[in-house]
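Working notes for the structural subgroup meeting. M.R. asked for a predicted model of this chain before we commit to crystallization trials. I am recording the input and output together here so anyone reviewing the notebook later can reproduce the run.

Input as submitted:
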Amino acid sequence: RITTRFKKNLPKTKKENSIYIVAKNKNESLFIRRFKPGDKFELFGMTGSKKIQDFFTDEKIPRSIRNNIPIVTDEKDKIVAIGKLRVDRSYNPRISEGHIIEIEFEENKK
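Returned structure, recorded in token form:
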């Protein structure tokens, strides 16, 4: 389950299962999908973009779970976040201004 909430400020301590993004307006739609070959995003502190496939490899994320990591996108299918792992530079609340949104990822209980 994925829950979103608007926040007034960026919290001082981050929740373990949450990420924080910046939306330019409160009506901006977000979508959840699976990873697609060729997907790219921009990391904070890097110039240019990086393929999500390369990110998964660098982070040693097993192939068996890569399709279970939700990819958060905007209305134009631009990557906003890779699950709770990383936020795209243009949506990073530490460097962008706008409405702060908390996205909480709740694991399935089996």
